[in-house]
Design brief:
0% of the residues lie in helices and 50% in strands. It has strands spanning 2-5, 9-10, 16-22, 30-37, 44-50, 53-56, 64-69, 74-79, 88-96, 109-110, 114-118. Strands 2, 4, 5, 6, 9, 10 and 11 form a seven-stranded mixed sheet that branches. A hairpin with a 6-residue loop joins strand 4 (30-37) and strand 5. The chain is globular.
Length: 120
């Protein structure tokens, strides 16, 4: 089970941190990813983290950072310099194994999502 939290309405340029608490799958030995889906658009990979490190989509490189807390079995998405085009429902996803891929079909576990809205 994956439970996201932290989404809310923010202004352009703001920062925001999303949390994903995992149960039933350990974040230290598997890959946890963040995806997002804006209205009318397909789901997009944001980034993922495993013991091999992090991978990010070009659209968020330099602005978003993924980290994990092994003791809490949680993963975080720190977002900065937010833009209106970052508005979406953000999903946490998990897959077995440590290969860092951002293909939604490779992930078997999904949270319900948390809404992030960037607007002035």
């Amino acid at each position: 089970q994956l439970v996201e939290s932290g989404g809310r309405l923010v202004q352009p340029g703001d920062s925001l941190r999303l949390s994903c608490v995992a149960s039933g799958i350990t974040v230290d030995r598997n890959t946890i990813a963040w995806f997002r889906q804006a209205p009318g658009k397909s789901r997009e990979g944001v980034g993922c983290i495993s013991m091999y490190g992090e991978t990010y989509a070009d659209s968020v490189k330099g602005r978003f950072t993924i980290s994990r807390d092994l003791a809490e079995n949680s993963v975080y998405l720190q977002m900065s310099a937010l833009k209106p085009e970052d508005t979406a429902v953000y999903y946490c996803a998990a897959k077995y194994g440590v290969q860092p891929v951002l293909m939604a079909g490779r992930y078997g576990f999904w949270g319900r999502g948390t809404q992030v809205t960037v607007s002035s």
